[in-house]
């Protein structure tokens, strides 16, 4: 049986591939469960320092599985309980990404629509191929992308997010970079190489420091300014007291490579 989310470890970098190309890697019930299982495992894997998330076939991810959602209407409550459970499960998976200790890089090509665009917005970083299109286009079929909106409105300016949500129009990779949805745009045939190079750059840093920094990055963003400084300062104290940080500082002063454990 084919894994819906394949995982390949290249040294300390884990490459996750959404593997349902026939449905444009739609976030079906099974796909969400497979993603959750992978994230649960990675949260405990101290040998993995960076995660790359990509899609098989001609697209990154086309969002929820609409055929599966329509089938959910067949219950006596017209699907109310199923839909509530589906969106709760999807929200749980999206929130697992910033909660992971490792940085997660979305490697995006083709299209990333609706919950697929939400998935890109939920990742810590994103590299997109030229020609990739992004949209929260549920409004075109009468379903406002309210849950994708949560992630999208936290990474792009509000008016950009609102326009995308209400018009259902797509933006291209260059525009996505301009508004902050992706970090880098590269030629399609350079996508894997460029994403791996970024992952290797992150993986070369002290993993404990990056994990502490990632956690604090999201925590302080929800705080008022004074509280954010107090929290971040306390984390820096703990970071400075790490054996490997002491070694890193000393190595810098002595102009040599650090001997990290």
In summary, what is this structure?
With 261 residues, the chain is α/β, with parallel strands linked by helices. It has helices spanning 29-43, 66-71, 80-99, 115-122, 146-152, 158-167, 173-179, 191-203, 207-221, 225-240, 243-253; strands at 5-10, 13-18, 50-55, 104-108, 111-113, 125-129, 133-135, 171-172, 184-186.
Any overview of this molecule?
Keywords: Fatty acid metabolism, Lipid metabolism, Transit peptide. Belongs to the enoyl-CoA hydratase/isomerase family. With 261 residues, the protein is α/β, with parallel strands linked by helices. It folds into two domains: 5-203, 2-enoyl-CoA Hydratase, Chain A, domain 1 (Alpha-Beta Complex), CATH 3.90.226; 207-253, Orthogonal Bundle (Lyase 2-enoyl-coa Hydratase, Chain  A, domain 2), CATH 1.10.12. It is built from eleven helices and nine strands. The model has no long low-confidence stretch (mean pLDDT 97).
């Amino acid at each position: 049986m084919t894994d819906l989310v394949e995982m390949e470890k290249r040294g300390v970098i884990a490459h996750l591939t959404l593997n349902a190309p026939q449905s444009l890697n739609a976030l079906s019930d099974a796909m969400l469960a497979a993603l959750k299982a992978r994230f649960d495992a990675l949260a405990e894997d101290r040998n993995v320092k960076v995660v790359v998330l990509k899609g098989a076939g001609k697209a990154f991810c086309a969002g929820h599985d609409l055929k599966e959602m329509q089938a959910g209407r067949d219950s006596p409550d017209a699907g109310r309980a199923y839909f509530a459970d589906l969106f709760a499960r999807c929200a749980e998976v999206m929130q697992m990404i910033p909660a992971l200790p490792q940085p997660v890089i979305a490697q995006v090509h083709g299209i990333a629509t609706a919950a697929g665009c939400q998935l890109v917005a939920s990742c810590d970083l994103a590299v997109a191929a030229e020609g990739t299109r992004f949209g929260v286009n549920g409004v075109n079929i009468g379903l406002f992308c309210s849950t994708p909106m949560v992630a999208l409105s936290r990474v792009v300016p509000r008016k950009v997010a609102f326009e995308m949500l209400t018009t259902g129009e797509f933006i291209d990779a260059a525009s996505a970079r301009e508004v902050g949805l992706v970090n880098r745009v590269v030629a399609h045939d350079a996508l894997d190489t460029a994403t791996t190079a970024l992952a290797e750059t992150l993986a070369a840093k002290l993993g404990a420091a990056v994990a502490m920094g990632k956690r604090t990055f999201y925590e302080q963003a929800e705080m008022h300014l004074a509280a954010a400084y107090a929290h971040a300062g306390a984390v820096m104290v703990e970071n400075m007291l790490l054996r490997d940080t002491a070694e890193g500082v000393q190595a810098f002063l002595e102009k040599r490579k650090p001997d990290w454990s």
